[in-house]
Design goal:
The protein is an alpha/beta fold and 152 residues long. The chain has helices spanning 12-25, 29-38, 51-56, 70-77, 95-105, 116-122, and strands at residues 26-28, 43-47, 63-64, 83-87, 109-114, 127-129, 132-134. The strands form 2 sheets. The chain has a 5-stranded parallel β-sheet. Strands 6-7 form a two-stranded antiparallel sheet. The protein is globular and about 55 Å long.
Length: 152
C-alpha cells in the first residue's frame, strides 16, 4: 500500500486552482530577492517583527512595521497602489501571516514571504544590522552553494 497514494491526488484542474491560489498568497525569498535587486516598482517589503529583532538584522530596503502597529501606521507609510510582502522570523512563526492579514483587512494587495528572515539568511542574502551590511555563507540545504539559482 502506498502512503502517498492512500489519499487519491486531486484532479488536475482542482490541483491547478489550488497551486495557483498558493502562489497568489506567497512568495519565496529567492523571488523577493530577485525583485528587490531588479528594483521592481510597486513592491514594499515589510518586516513585522519587534524592534530587537529588526536591529539584529533585516532585509535591505525593508520597512519596519510591527504587526500590532500596521492598522495605525500603514496608511501613512505604505501607498495603497503597492503590493506588500510581509516577513517575520521563519517557517516556525506565523507573524508574517498575521501581518499579511492586517494589510489585507486594510485593503492592500499582499503576499507572505515564505521562509521569512531565517531562509533569507540561510540562502546567503545580505542583511542590514546596526554595524552594517553582512551575509552569511549559503546553507547547502536551502540553496546551491555556488550562488546560482536553483532554477525552480
Amino acid at each position: 500500500m502506498s502512503s502517498v497514494l492512500s489519499t487519491a491526488p486531486a484532479p488536475p484542474d482542482e490541483a491547478a486552482r489550488h497551486f495557483a491560489a498558493r502562489l497568489a498568497f506567497e512568495a519565496d525569498v529567492s523571488d523577493v530577492h530577485a525583485d528587490l535587486e531588479a528594483g521592481v516598482p510597486g513592491l514594499v517589503v515589510v518586516d513585522s517583527r519587534n524592534v530587537e529583532a529588526w536591529e539584529q538584522g533585516h532585509l535591505p530596503g525593508a520597512l519596519h512595521l510591527p504587526t500590532a502597529l500596521i492598522g495605525e501606521r500603514a496608511p501613512a507609510l505604505v501607498s495603497p497602489d503597492t503590493t506588500v510582502v510581509t516577513y517575520c522570523w521563519g517557517p516556525g512563526c506565523n507573524g508574517a501571516t498575521r501581518a499579511a492579514l492586517a494589510f489585507a483587512r486594510l485593503g492592500y494587495r499582499v503576499k507572505e514571504m515564505i521562509g521569512g528572515y531565517e531562509y533569507w539568511v540561510r540562502e546567503g542574502f545580505a542583511v542590514e544590522t546596526a554595524t552594517g551590511r553582512l551575509s552569511r555563507p549559503v546553507d547547502a540545504l536551502t540553496a546551491p552553494v555556488a550562488g546560482a539559482s536553483c532554477g525552480c
